[in-house]
Amino acid sequence: MPDFRASLPIALTIPAAGILIATYLYNRPLPLPKERKISVTEELSHSFASGPSPKSLGIVNPRNHIQLTDSRSINLLRSEISRSHLRDGDAMVSDEEILARFLVGFFGGWSFTPERGLLAALRRMGKKFIEAKYTEMPSSGHPIDTLGGFSKTKLPPKGTILFGGNFMVLDTRVFFPPGSPSSASSLATREVPSYIDIGFGDPVISYVDVAFGADQKNFSGLHRFEIQYHPTKKEGEELTVWYSSLSCNPSLNRAPFPKWTVAFHRWYAMCLFRDGIEGVIRG
Predict the structure, then answer these.
(1) Which pLDDT score is estimated for 188?
(2) Strand order in 161-162's β-sheet?
(3) Alpha helices (H) along the chain
(4) Per-residue pLDDT tens digits for 123-172
(5) Number of Cβ atoms within 10 Å of the Cβ of 146
(6) Which of 95, 108, 114, 237 has CA 20 to 30 A from 9's CA?
(7) What long-range pairs does 28-37 form, CB within 8 A, spacing at least 24?
């Protein structure tokens, strides 16, 4: 008869190691001063209410059903962010480059690795977890199926399909200071706010919305990666990076998933946020 006592240490070590890894990913330090803390709220960032357009909410939740929301944010100084990857390497990073770096860190970090592997396996079998498909936003452009397709300086265009059709870039809004090289080259393809649009007392808001699920299915949601700052305060030296998450059941007016999964979502979202912030800082 096999001696189960010999295998007991292994049986205990595996879950213990998993708990230690999960705890580390959730709490691992960022390359920032220790007093810098991540703020967490169960609300979306205020840009959804006071910002330029709520159209992404209408696309992922067209019937205004019950939705689960939360946000994470942290303050950064531009001087804490590594220099631009563009040709003018001495330049401070633009809003678009910060968001592009966050996108790469979010989807390219350790935390997303298991999900990225699962999506890749499904793609090889010609399947999708839940196809990102929305009535009001057709897919367009070249899909990005691997990390190599992402840029650390430019955001994917609206309508871009990510990771085999499981995510879609729903909207982008990037602020370029008047007179900057990016401002003139982007007017034809992007919504570029001016100082008049923003107002002298309001913060600058740049963001990219990435959707998942479908408005004709039982699950739909949105990630918003966002930065806010006041351009008149030391040339926007201090900024706040936000990650807001929303999920809903667009077909039935009920919660999109059981309450017991909320704790996992909060852990996972924090891990992904840390990966995104580290991507911004290290470049």
Answers:
(1) 37
(2) 39-41, 67-77, 238-248, 220-229, 204-213, 167-173, 161-162
(3) 4-27, 47-50, 55-60, 95-108, 113-124, 181-186, 195-198, 262-282
(4) 898 888 889 999 999 998 899 999 999 999 999 999 999 999 999 999 99
(5) 13
(6) 114
(7) 28/274, 30/74, 30/274, 30/277, 30/278, 30/281, 31/80, 31/278, 31/281, 31/282, 32/74, 32/76, 32/80, 32/281, 36/74, 36/75, 37/74
**DSSP secondary structure of 158-217:** TT-EEGGGTEEEEEEE----TT-HHHHHHTTTS----HHHH-TTSPEEEEEEEEEEBTTS
Supply the pLDDT for residue 132: 94
Q: What is the mean pLDDT of the chain?
A: 84
Q: Which two tokens mark 78? A: 């531009």
d(CA 112, CA 38): 19
Sign of torsion, CA 185 188 192 196? positive
Q: Can you give the pLDDT at residue 279?
A: 96
Q: State the helix-helix crossing angle for 4-27 and 262-282, rounded to 10 degrees.
A: 60
Average pLDDT over residues 45-67: 83
Q: Write out the two tokens for 113.
A: 């690795």
Q: Is the pLDDT of residue 5 over 60?
A: no
Residue 177 CA to residue 31 CA, distance in Å, equals 28
Residue matched to tokens 């999960």: 22
Model pLDDT, residue 195:
40
